[in-house]
Amino acid sequence: MQSVSAELARIVESAEALLRRVTEEESGRPVLSGGWSRKQVIGHLIDSASNNHQRFVRAALADSLEFPNYDTPGCVRVQAVERAAWPVLVSLWASYNRYLAHVTANLPAEKLETICRIGARDPVTLRELTEDYVRHLVHHLGQIGCT
């Protein structure tokens, strides 16, 4: 997990510098089909960090994990990320992911094959879940020009 952790830390360092160059006005403009702004994408990535934090830790403490999926558009809407200050969103996203890099690096090796069931998706191991988290992050950062 050291390589996953190091990759996550590297991605955060690089993307944070780019995100901090985005103005408040630019952060709220739609950039994706469907009208999502950078604020909404970063809000989604904060939700992803929060949900995956719980998944990683709970899977490391259990013999298996069953965890519900989450309503992405609903979470973004309820949290009103478009009305949050851009620097606050960027700081929270970066800090949370730096912490997840730490958590990932310290997951017990003997728990990496724990089976995780997330919503109706096919089961994956904790190792696969952490690797997929980084791929998901890179995908969305790429959508907003940060990879």
Descriptive notes:
With 147 residues, the chain is mainly alpha-helical. It has a single domain (2-24, 37-143), classed as dinb family like domain (Four Helix Bundle (Hemerythrin (Met), subunit A)). The protein has 6 helices and 3 strands, in the order H-H-H-E-H-H-E-E-H. It has helices at 2-19, 24-28, 38-61, 72-78, 86-105, 126-143, and strands at 64-67, 115-118, 124-125. A 3-stranded mixed β-sheet has the order 1-2-3. The radius of gyration is 15 Å and the shape is globular.
- What is the CATH domain class? Mainly Alpha
Question: Which class best fits the helix and strand makeup?
Answer: mainly alpha
Which topology does CATH recognise?
Answer: Four Helix Bundle (Hemerythrin (Met), subunit A)
Number of helices: 6
| Distance between the amino and carboxyl termini | 21 Å
| Tally of individual domains | 1
Strand order of the largest sheet: 1-2-3
Helix content: 55-70%
What is the CATH-assigned architecture?
Up-down Bundle
Q: H/E element string? A: HHHEHHEEH
Radius of gyration: 15 Å
Largest sheet: 3 strands, mixed
What general outline do the C-alpha atoms trace? globular
The strand count comes to 3
Task: Give me the CATH superfamily.
Answer: dinb family like domain
Strand content: 5-15%
State the low-pLDDT regions, or none: none
Q: Give the overall average pLDDT.
A: 95
